[in-house]
Design a protein that fits this description.
CATH topology of the largest domain: Double-stranded beta-helix
Number of domains: 2
Number of helices: 10
Strand content: 15-25%
Largest sheet: 7 strands, mixed
Distance between the termini: 26 Å
Helix content: 10-25%
Strand order of the largest sheet: 1-5-6-16-9-18-7
CATH architecture of the largest domain: 4-Layer Sandwich
Number of strands: 18
Structural class: alpha+beta
Bound molecules: N-oxalylglycine, zinc ion
Radius of gyration: 27 Å
CATH superfamily of the largest domain: Clavaminate synthase-like
Shape: globular
Oligomer: single chain
């Protein structure tokens, strides 16, 4: 079964979760061709473009021209090419891991010759006459920007209105049976920041099975899994019937768990509705409306802390983390665990005032109704989301009721790996 979970907004149509519009993933990490590929280069039926003769071992194919005139190598530094060499001397044929470290490579490496044959480019290096064979595709890949699927430009940022037709979901039995459904869900986790499964059996512990399909469970001070229900002496406000404002979990951990799962075993009769907010969208809106406030949140380390009878955790990081290009990459936002700002001796009260104004501006953005996707988890529903991007919330409910969720954490790199393996298998089967 595939379908949509009604949101608390007017809806016009039903949108099945599908592969439509999926961004195709980045290619597998590039590599020079392997030793076997080199044999093909010498194959007599290829027409070689002869370049300047290389020094070093005899060159069976004749003279070689200077590599500077080989357009296929334009813009690629000799040391980069030498680092990418995939020959049996440079890379272990079985694992594909590099055998040579940077200190094993000549510091004065140069390209003394290159020749092309169809899709293959053979490069001869100075000063040692080392030879590498690259595919044109690999050379093209080296000119692309670095791949980081965590930053805002690799995401589809959303607001509640983008889900006016309902929340996409997949059924757990189909997810288990069909690799393509798993692939679509994991792709949604990386692109949209979440996916929703229904028909997940209401047996305690099943959330761990869900997490296992999206990487590896991350054990925390709350255990491998945790129960979200009303407790007599709650160490966390999540374990009460109180409303919980949009937040990310465990901001007091470094590294923070990057994926969170919440599986509903029993819902409240009234209340306990869920909310999701795209924190990247909220941060981007803040950046547009008040760039100075955005900068303050991105540059000011703040401390989040948590303590109970068994744990005393703290982490000091900015609320908005940007990558070296200045793109939004991580959000930590949790009013329950944020500590009063410390600026040190150099800090002035004015700076503290400016920080709190920026924090308020972000908090006001995060709670804008048009940003929050609201829905109700029914027993058997399990939501999986990016805890470095998506803020989650719930409305209050009667503490006397039976509401019971089980949660656990996992990590985005494991989810990205599971997705890459699924894509690799599908492509290999074609
Ligand atoms: C949590 C939490 C939300 C809910 O346990 O981290 O935020 O719906 N729970 O109870
Ligand atoms: Zn090599
Ligand atoms: Zn939470």
């Amino acid at each position: 079964m595939t379908g949509t979970l009604p949101t608390h907004r007017p809806r016009s149509a039903v949108t099945p979760a599908s592969a439509a519009g999926l961004r195709s993933g980045p290619p597998l990490a590039g590599a020079g061709m392997n030793a076997g590929d080199q044999v093909r280069v010498g194959s007599p039926n290829k027409r070689w473009r002869l370049l300047r003769r290389a020094p070093g071992p005899a060159n069976a194919e004749g003279a070689m021209k200077t590599a500077a005139h080989e357009p296929v190598l334009d813009g690629l530094a000799p040391i980069l090419l030498r680092h990418g060499c995939g020959c049996a001397e440079c890379r272990d044929a079985g694992s594909g891991q590099r055998l040579a470290s940077i200190t094993d490579l000549p510091g004065d490496v140069s390209v003394t010759g290159a020749r092309t044959a169809g899709n293959a480019v053979e490069v001869v290096f100075g000063p040692d006459g080392h030879r590498a064979v690259f595919s044109r595709a690999w050379l093209d890949d080296q000119r692309r920007p670095p791949e980081d699927d965590r930053a805002e430009d690799a995401k589809r940022l959303w607001a509640a209105g983008d889900y006016a037709a309902g929340l996409p979901w997949q059924s757990w039995p189909r997810y288990l049976d069909d690799a393509r459904v798993r692939e679509d869900c994991l792709a949604a986790l990386l692109r949209d920041g979440f996916f929703l499964l229904r028909d997940v059996p209401c047996q305690p512990g099943t959330v761990l099975s869900v997490a296992g399909t999206a990487g590896y469970v991350r054990e925390t001070n709350y255990g491998r899994l945790f129960d979200v229900r009303v407790e007599a002496t709650p160490a966390n406000l999540a374990f009460t019937g109180l409303p919980v404002a949009p937040h990310t979990d465990n901001p007091y951990r470094d590294p923070v768990p990057t994926v969170q799962l919440l599986h509903c075993l029993a819902s409240a009769v009234d209340g306990g509705d869920s909310g999701l907010v795209d924190g990247f969208r909220a941060a981007a809106l803040l950046r547009g409306a008040d760039p100075a406030a955005f900068e303050i949140l991105a540059r000011t380390p703040v401390t989040f802390a948590y303590a109970d009878a068994h744990a005393e955790l703290r982490a000091t990081r900015p609320m908005i983390t940007t990558d070296p290009r200045g793109k939004i990459r991580e959000i930590r936002f949790n009013s329950r665990s944020l500590q009063p700002l410390r600026l040190g001796r150099e800090g002035s009260p004015d700076e503290a005032v400016a920080f709190y104004a920026a924090y308020r501006a972000f908090a006001e953005t995060v709670i804008r109704p048009e940003l929050m996707l609201t829905f109700r988890l029914a027993p058997g529903d399990c939501v999986v989301f990016d805890n470095t991007r998506i803020l989650h919330a719930r409305t209050g409910f009667a503490a006397a009721g039976q509401r019971h969720l089980q949660g656990c954490y996992a990590d985005l790199d494991g989810a990205a790996s599971a997705l890459a393996v699924l894509r690799r298998a599908r492509k290999a089967a074609r």
